[in-house]
Structures are given as C-alpha cells and as structure tokens.
Write a structure and sequence with these properties.
Blueprint: H1 2-8, H2 19-39, H3 52-76, H4 89-115, H5 121-159, H6 163-168, E1 178-181, E2 188-191, E3 196-202, E4 205-212, E5 215-221, H7 225-230, E6 237-241, E7 244-247, E8 251-257, E9 260-265, E10 271-275, H8 279-288
Antiparallel strand pairs: 1-2, 3-4, 3-7, 4-5, 6-7, 8-9, 9-10
Helix pairs in contact: 2-3, 3-4, 4-5
Length: 290
C-alpha cells in the first residue's frame, strides 16, 4: 500500500500543448468513432435512424474535441498548478478522470439529441458508466506505463554524463563581458560565462543567479525570458525549460525522473529542471563534451 501511495506522488510530466497533443486528440476521435460505427455497442445496434453510421462517427468528433480541450487548450492557459514542479502521477490520473466525465456528458447530450429524448440523470449515469468501462483501465495503464518508460529513459541518460570531463573544460575567466539591456533603461545584465549559473522567469522579470568570488548572488531584472534568450551569444547557455535558461558548463551533477532532467548547479542547492522538449539539446551538449 505504501508503495502505491509513493508511486502516485511521484513527479509526472505535465501536458505540453503542441503538435503531439493535437495528433493524439485526432487519434482518440478516430478510434472512438470507428469503434462505435463498427461494433455498435451499448444497444446502438438495435436503434435505427437516418445516416446512422455518420451520426455514430460524430461521437468520435465530439470525443476528439474534448480531448484536445484537455490536452492542448487548457495547458495553453499556463496555469501554475499544471506546471511540472506541481504535477504528479495522481494528478495526471485525476485529470484523466475529469476528461472522461466531460466526454460522457457531451456524448450523452448528443445521444439525447439523436434519440429526440430529454436529458435525464439516469441516462447520464449510464453514459458515464459505459465510458468508464471503455476508457478507465486502458487510460490508467497507459499513464503508468508512460511513467515507467520516461523514468527509466531519463535516469539511464543522465548516468552517461561525464561531469569530471566538463569541469576540466569550464571557463574560469571570461574573454568578453556582454552587457544585455533590460526594459529598465538604467539597468543592464553583465553576462560573464565564468559567473552566470541560470536565469528563471518570473512573469515579466528575470531572476538571474550567478557566482561572484565563489559566492552565490541573485538579482531581479525587468526583462522577459524570451528577450533575454534572443540576446545570448554563448553556446553553453541554452533554454532548458519554458521558465529557465542554464549555463551547462556550471552543472555539477544531474538526476533523471519522468519529467526529464534535474540539474544541480555548482555553488548552490538550487535545482534547474530540463523539460522533455529540451532534453535532446542538453543531452547533445553533454555527449559532445564527454
């Protein structure tokens, strides 16, 4: 029992809107529509109405729209609770259950329209039960399987990084210090690759962490992460997360979990996350410096 609760509280990658989420939604819609049109379960085979196959396929369209709402448009809102640092296995499972309920509600409304009957709670409960029978077990299995796959993948990748080799190549004296202008005309960010550790976005501000005489300093600048990134010229400074830019030369150690990598920076206990989208760039950097 403890092992199960421990698994449910493990970090799980929050949904990232994009091409994959849209393709996934289309796939779900095609599957649901084809399943209903071919097998006609839950008594639909006994009901006759005009354009029956076409109307059964329409359930797939509704299902696809609900899925794209949950896995593309809601994540686009950028809600704090749906960021990687808050997202866990149990939250992903609960989110999936909420989507299933929405699927049942909208498909039940469409079913009532097709039959020409008014909405009833008994019909809705029947639709929820049917939807759960089809989707819950495979859905939960897919989430847990995906968690184990990503966890194993990222843990194994991090074990191949050579941090001792990286330390030997670390820049200790900057050749040029670049002054990056901010939205505050009287303020600039002095970029020294020998000192800079990472920067974290905080709305329209950027919290920059750097070392000075081996002492950690943090300073807030009025500039967005995007503007800051566009002015960088150092190849070892890369965006590793939608909220972070990191100096990979100053990574002291790293761990992997289902969300990607967690980078331990030198001179601080702060951990910089690397989300799945940026894992290939970080992996390539360490591979080229091994």
């Amino acid at each position: 029992m403890y092992a199960m609760f421990s698994l449910l509280n493990k970090p799980y990658p929050a949904t990232e809107p994009g091409k994959r989420s849209i393709l996934f939604s289309i796939g779900v819609g095609i599957f649901v529509g084809a399943f209903l049109a071919i097998f006609q379960p839950f008594g639909t085979s006994e009901i006759e109405f005009d354009y029956k196959i076409l109307k059964l396929l329409s359930f797939g369209i509704i299902s696809g729209l609900v899925v794209v709402l949950f896995y593309h448009f809601i994540p686009l809102l950028g809600l704090e609770i749906m960021r990687d640092k808050h997202w866990t296995v149990w939250k992903e499972l609960l989110y999936f259950l909420c989507m299933i309920v929405f699927l049942a509600v909208f498909n039940n409304l469409y079913s009532s329209y097709l039959r020409g009957t008014p909405f009833t709670w008994s019909d809705l409960l029947g639709m929820v039960s049917s939807t759960f029978m089809i989707a819950v077990v495979p859905g939960f299995f897919m989430v847990l399987l995906d968690y184990n796959h990503k966890l194993k993948k990222y843990v194994e990748e991090v074990q191949g990084f050579n941090f001792k080799q990286l330390e030997q190549k670390r820049i200790h004296n900057a050749v040029d210090v670049v002054q990056i202008p901010t939205d505050n005309l009287n303020d600039q960010i002095p970029m020294n690759p020998a000192d800079f550790l990472f920067a974290e976005a905080e709305g329209n501000y950027l919290n920059v962490s750097y070392l000075k005489n081996d002492i950690l300093h943090k300073k807030l600048f009025r500039i967005t992460l995007k503007k800051f990134e566009n002015q960088l010229t150092f190849e070892n400074l890369i965006k590793c997360h939608r909220s972070f830019i990191v100096n990979l030369q100053h990574v002291e150690n790293a761990k992997g979990n289902a969300q990607g990598y967690k980078l331990k920076m030198m001179g601080t206990d702060d951990i910089v996350p690397v989300s799945r989208k940026y894992v290939p760039f970080v992996k390539q950097y360490f591979a080229s410096n091994n």
